[in-house]
Amino acid sequence: MQERDPNLVTSGLSETVTRDGITVKVCIHRLETDTEWSLEVVNAAGTSIVWDELFSSDNAAKEEFLRTVAEDGMATFLDNATIIPFRR
Questions:
Q1: Shortest CA distance to 20 belongs to which of 65, 60, 77?
Q2: Distance between CA atoms of residues 16 and 47, nearest Å
Q3: pTM metric for this prediction
């Protein structure tokens, strides 16, 4: 019998946040078999920013998001990359 994949647990602290005219989706989740939480922020263009480190609680992950916004601003989550298209 094949073992099932663990369920994804989404924190109640996950939410859509709008500040300074910028809207992002804050996703805080973990696998049901894990105790540490991951933090992901998805901007309006669909770009996902995921922190490398895990957090001991969903509250700690949310505090890291808020700290990042306070220090760097919401613009830090915007796509600012220079895109150079391939020649056809």
A1: 77
A2: 14
A3: 0.84
**Which among 39, 88, 46, 48 is positioned nearest to 67, based on CA atoms?**
39
Pairwise CA distance, residues 45 & 67, whole Å: 23
- Concatenated DSSP letters for 32-53? TT-S-BEEEEEETT--EEE-SS
- Token pair of 39, please? 């933090």
- Tens-place pLDDT, residues 42-80: 999 999 999 999 999 999 999 999 999 999 999 999 987
pLDDT at 72: 92
Nearest-angstrom CA–CA distance, 53 and 36: 10
Backbone angles phi, psi at 87, to 5 degrees: -70, 145
Q: How many CB atoms lie within 10 A of CB 12?
A: 7
Domain boundaries, the chain: 8-72
